[in-house]
Structure formats: structure tokens, C-alpha cells
Specification:
Elements (H helix, E strand, L loop, with lengths): L22 H14 L13 E5 L2 E4 L4 E4 L12 H13 L9 H11 L6 E7 L2 H16 L3 E5 L8 H4 L15 E4 L12 H18 L4 E6 L17 H9 L3 E5 L24 E4 L10 E6 H8 L12 H16 L2 H19 L6 E7 L2 E6 L10 H13 L3 E2 L1 E3 L5 E4 L9 H16 L2
Parallel strand pairs: 3-13, 5-6, 5-7, 7-8, 8-9
Antiparallel strand pairs: 1-2, 2-3, 4-10, 9-10, 11-12, 12-15, 14-15
């Protein structure tokens, strides 16, 4: 029997929970199962029926207000007026595919390329992060002449055939590609050596050697620079650089999956990879760039992209369509004009400080880590053993949802790390709601 997926099943509604649901919720879950099939998953033992969102808040069908501490897709806040207006205006004028000329895609690209290192000077657009990573893998293979891709042990990079084959977080029911190799997560909380960067680079080199032994030519290393599915691995700043140097020394390329850490999320920089002082060969992005509108992107060095684009035409029917580009333009403008990178850094630090103070009251908090408004809150049985406490973590997120109307979820191979990743609209005054809820919840569940 296949093991459960760490990102799909750890915090999910299951059939055995159905008996406890109210009549309306039970009817909706039954209908979903009937018409949508069984691959989909819902969060929580008692699924949330949402009907409205504004900024960092959500409302359910009963009118209850929630604090969203998980949704990075609505990156600058649910239903942001600037995005709503931009999409509405463009939708009234034109929305069609990208084989006609249109200014939006060019104007947006000009602005977006200003945010990346100068070596990266080409852009392509898709509709999802999966498509962006899929294309990145194809480009890596054309450029290197190899097929081997290295990812971290709990990585998630998409749902296409290529990307699911590089996404161990999907579980053993979804087999990895024979050309995929895994490296352990760079877990600074449990690392006991002298230099995490040296250790992680050695892990990369070891897998390249294994590929060579098996007759697989190395193509590239694909990583989310904050290792979110691995449990949020943010520090020390700069540890990733030595690994990227190893990748390049072995003829491969580094693909920075910025779907989650990009667009001001980590506060220290506009892009997550920039915290480590590296220049990727390819950057991939996803729906946060359009605040939830289906849009994604791939930014690349010209010489890397040319290995693919000089040989193979690429067409994504609605990738970069005028409406999606209008949404993306609005998001980028809001991030810059509202100084959301600085906001993420400042408010994120205040939140981490408050969460760290909770460690004095709760022995079950093993670690608080992260950057900007991207925080890992790790729960353990005790700090001496550092043993993951998955049961407590799952009970915590259920109590947060049911009693305190706070929405979040878990990450990491053991499902014991709360992934606190609110929309960038999250404000300093929301800290009391979140931290107070966590304090009360941990007090109740560990009494």
C-alpha cells in the first residue's frame, strides 16, 4: 500500500471524519467525492467552507472571520483592489493567446527583469508553477545534454509528469523518475557539523557521483531556496552558494523554484535565492505573481535558454495572456509602491520574536525559524531529543481552526512543522491574534 503524501495527506479530511460533520458540510464533501473524484484533498477534519476574502482575512459560509496564515497564492492579500481593477479593465478590452502582439507582456517583462541579476535577461510565461518547472527541466536537459535532476528529500515542484517525477513530497504512490536523485534537507536545527554549506554541497556531489556510476549525465539542481516542503530551511544565510558552485563545476544548472519564496516573501530580498548570494541559471515562478490569477513565469540566462529555444518552438496558449499580465503588473506595482518587501522583513521579524518568546512557556516548541513572512514553527516531544511531534502539530492546527479561527498547515517529512506563511497583507496587529491563539492552544493540548 502506498504511503501518504506529506503535502497532500498530512493535514487532510478523511472518510472517517465524515460522521462528525454538520449536514451541509457533509453534503458538500459527498458531492465533491462524487463529481471530482478521489485524488483531491480538503484541509482539516472539519473542512472550511469559505465564501469571502479580504486582505489577510477570510469568512466562511456561517459568517465567521478567519486569520489566513497559510495562503501565499493570494500573495498581496485576498481580493486586492488593484488586482481586481486591473483584471476587470483588461477583461473588458481583450483576452487572447500570445501569438498576437500585445504590450502587456512586454511592459511587464521589462519591469520584472529589473528585479533579477543582470545575467538573467530572458522571460517566458505559462499558467502554473508546474508548467514553469516542467519547462525548466526540459531546458536544463537541452543545455547540459544530461537528464539527471537533483532535488531535496521532501521537495515539491509540480504535478506534470516531469515535475511529479521530481517531487518526493507527493508520496510513494507517485514514483520518482529513474533520473531523479534526492539530497537530505539542509536542516540547521539538527545539523551538528561545522559548516552546513560544506555539508550540503557534499551531498550534491555525492548524488552526482551516483548518477555517473549509473550512466546518468547530470543536468541540474532544482530547489526552492527556503526548502518549504522540507520544513522551512532558511539559515544560515548564504549556505546554498557552495552547493550551486558544485552544480556548475559538474556542468549542470541551478533552477531556483521561486513560486513560494519569491516576490518579497522572505523580506531580506525580493527573491529567495538572493539571500544566498547566488545567481540561478533559471528562475521559475507561479500564481503568487498574479495574486492567484493563473500565471507563471520562467526567467533565464540567454545562453542557457538558447540551448532550448534555438532548437525547439514553445507555445503555451494562454501563458502570458493580457489579463494575466495585467494582474501580474498590478501585483508587482503594489509590492513596490507599498514597500511590501520591507514590510515582510519588519513584521516577520516581530512575529518571529513573539513566537520565540513562546518557547519560554512551551517546551514542545523546538525551533522557530524563517525569513520575512515565511516561518517554520517546529513542535517536538522534547528539546533534548528533538523528536518530531506530528500528533501535537496536527491537533494544534485543528484547534487553531476550530476555536481560534486561524488557518495554517504543516510541512516537513514528519508533518510537525507549522508553516506560517500569511498573505503579505498580514499586519503587526495580527500578531496578537496568531500568537495568542498558539499560546492558548499549546497550553490546552499539553496540559
Amino acid at each position: 500500500m502506498a504511503t501518504r503524501s506529506t503535502i497532500m495527506d498530512t493535514n487532510s479530511f478523511r472518510a472517517e471524519d465524515a460522521a462528525a460533520l454538520d449536514e451541509q458540510t457533509r453534503a458538500l464533501t459527498d458531492k465533491r467525492n462524487d463529481v471530482l473524484g478521489e485524488s483531491y484533498r480538503l484541509f482539516y477534519r472539519n473542512p472550511v467552507h469559505l465564501v469571502k476574502g479580504q486582505g489577510q482575512y477570510l469568512w466562511d459560509a456561517a459568517g465567521d472571520k478567519y486569520l489566513d496564515v497559510y495562503n501565499n497564492v493570494a500573495s498581496i492579500g485576498h481580493c486586492h483592489p488593484a488586482v481586481v481593477s486591473a483584471v476587470h479593465e483588461q477583461m473588458q478590452q481583450l483576452n487572447t493567446h500570445t501569438r498576437y502582439l500585445h504590450e502587456n507582456i512586454l511592459n511587464y517583462t521589462d519591469e520584472l527583469l529589473k528585479t533579477v541579476p543582470s545575467e538573467i535577461n530572458r522571460a517566458m510565461y505559462m499558467c502554473t508553477g508546474s508548467e514553469a518547472n516542467d519547462l525548466a527541466i526540459r531546458i536544463a536537459r537541452e543545455y547540459s545534454g544530461g537528464t539527471g535532476i537533483i532535488v531535496s528529500q521532501e521537495a515539491y515542484h509540480g504535478t506534470s509528469e516531469l515535475t511529479s517525477g521530481c517531487s518526493p513530497a507527493l508520496g510513494s504512490g507517485q514514483p520518482l523518475a529513474a533520473t531523479t536523485r534526492l539530497v537530505p534537507a539542509p536542516d540547521s536545527y539538527r545539523f551538528s557539523g561545522d559548516d552546513l554549506g560544506d555539508w550540503f554541497a557534499a551531498q550534491i556531489q555525492q548524488q552526482i557521483h551516483d548518477m555517473n556510476d549509473k550512466g546518468i549525465k547530470f543536468a541540474g539542481f532544482l530547489a526552492d531556496s527556503i526548502f518549504s516542503s522540507d520544513g522551512v530551511m532558511s539559515h544560515p544565510i548564504g549556505f546554498l552558494k557552495k552547493a550551486v558552485d558544485v552544480v556548475h563545476a559538474n556542468g549542470g544548472i541551478f533552477i531556483a523554484d521561486e513560486v513560494q519564496p519569491g516576490f518579497a516573501r522572505t523580506g531580506d530580498s525580493f527573491w529567495g535565492f538572493a539571500r544566498h548570494g547566488v545567481v540561478p541559471d533559471i528562475i521559475t515562478t507561479g500564481k503568487p505573481m498574479g495574486n492567484g490569477i493563473p500565471v507563471s513565469g520562467l526567467l533565464a540566462k540567454q545562453n542557457v535558454l538558447s540551448a532550448f529555444s534555438d532548437q525547439i518552438p514553445y507555445f503555451n496558449t494562454f501563458g502570458g495572456n493580457p489579463v494575466s499580465m495585467a494582474a501580474a503588473q498590478a501585483v508587482l506595482k503594489v509590492i513596490q509602491e507599498e514597500e511590501l518587501q520591507q514590510h515582510s522583513q519588519r513584521v516577520g521579524q516581530l512575529l518571529r520574536d513573539e513566537l520565540t518568546q513562546l518557547m519560554q512557556r512551551h517546551e514542545c516548541i523546538g525551533d522557530v525559524r524563517g525569513a520575512g513572512l515565511f516561518i517554520g514553527f517546529e513542535l517536538v516531544t522534547d528539546r533534548l531529543s528533538q523528536a518530531p511531534n506530528k500528533t501535537l502539530a496536527l491537533n494544534v492546527i485543528e484547534e487553531l481552526r476550530n476555536t481560534h479561527r486561524v488557518l495554517t498547515s504543516v510541512a516537513g517529512p514528519h508533518g510537525n512543522v507549522l508553516k506560517l506563511r500569511p498573505p503579505l497583507a498580514f499586519q503587526q496587529h495580527d500578531i496578537d491574534w496568531l500568537v495568542g491563539a498558539l499560546d492558548q492552544t499549546l497550553t490546552k493540548l499539553t496540559a
